[in-house]
Amino acid sequence: MKKRSLLFTGLFLIFLLALYMQPIWFPQEPAEDETTKQLPRTPPATNLNYETIETEGFAHWIEKDLDAFEQDYGQPEESMASGFSFTINRYLIDDELLEVNSEDKVIKSIKYLGEEDDTIKPFKFGMTMDELSKIAMVYPNFTIDYQDETIDLELEEDDMNYRPLIAFDNGTFAILFFEQMQGESQLYAVDYLDSETLLKLAPYTVADDQGPRYAQEKGSDWEEIHQFKRQQTSDFLQLLRKRKEQPTFSLDSNLQMTSEKTLATFINDKEDILTTERLQELQRFEEEEPGTFMLNDSEMTDLLDDPSISGHFEMPVYDPSFSVLSWYSTPRLNERLLASNEASLAVAFSKENVLILWKELDYQTEESESN
User: CAP-associated domain: which residues (predicted)?
Assistant: First the structure.
């Protein structure tokens, strides 16, 4: 009995010793603080800049000799100085648009709307954004080196959906224009251009409002340039309506006179149309800020003072065909320019300022009957 008591006492002492020494022999890891678990993790650094794709199609011709291009595509139907350092060369192709902008016989941009998919590889006319995503990533930010500067471009949602920017590995770019339509939008035109032209046209938001600008050329024959650009813009708008099987615009000499008079009135008396804040905004665009200035609906109504006429004012417009492509891929302007109603059209230019007027024929018929 005594031996059993001693054995029990010994085992009990060993148990107590083990219980006492357990935290020392087997220290516990400190429990992770619950608040630490809930803290958001810092995401890995993301490169917001773009990646390039292989150079194909018209992208090969950017910054190349214009004479070599014309050996393949023939002489232009028309060539005209833009008044802003580059020349616009228009090539005759039935129901298509092919325009090349050049400086000193060097190609700066190529705009093409047509049917030949080989010229716009790896893209295809009629392709959707989903199909584009299998070829190239659509980026919202681009950092572009220009001379001694780095300039940041920011694409907004509409830009990414209807005017995405793609970069090629030869340092050139392409703006893909997707048309507004029910269902998925489809590619209908491409503008290939070098980095300088991209920055000067400024179709996207420019961070810090920095970037190069086009300057008016001294000694330009503006009357001849305005006439050329009026015809260029009208022809392109007519082509777009024809391709959508809409009735083409009719030409109205009275409406044309109205457009020229109205544009001159705005340029000379803009303070009568714009608020002080809007006038200051316009002055910033005129002097240094990249981007475009447009009259809103109420300002246009005050300027026209005629409910039968609709209009669109924009500045600066250096390259009319590029601006038309942008309008066509903008929902509000697309609806107006491609409305099924028959209408007349007038286009007025004053250097980098443009005014488009259109008037439904129903209004004109009513006016004729009332007279």
Answer: 62-204
Rg over alpha carbons for the chain, rounded to the nearest Å, is: 32
d(CA 168, CA 174) in angstroms, rounded, equals 8
**CA nearest 82: which of 99, 95, 98?**
99
pLDDT in tens, 108-141: 999 999 988 999 999 999 999 999 999 999 999 9
Residue closest to 230 by CA, chosen among 355, 338, 101, 86: 355
What strand order describes the sheet that includes 343-350? 250-251, 343-350, 353-360, 309-315, 293-294
Count of C-beta atoms within a 10 Å radius of residue 42 = 6
Instruction: Collect contacts of 73-79 with beta carbons under 8 A, ≥24 apart.
Output: 73/98, 76/100, 78/228
Do 57-209 and 222-370 share a fold?
A: yes
d(CA 142, CA 199): 11
What are 32-79's pLDDT values in tens digits? 444 333 333 333 333 457 899 999 999 999 999 999 999 999 999 999
Domain spans of the chain, in order of start? 57-209, 222-370
At the top level of CATH, which class does the domain 222-370 belong to?
alpha beta
Cβ neighbours of residue 6 closer than 8 Å, sequence gap 6 or more: none
List of residues 6+ apart from 183 with CB closer than 8 A: none
pLDDT digits (tens, 9 = 90+) for 294-335: 999 999 999 998 889 999 999 999 999 999 999 988 877 887
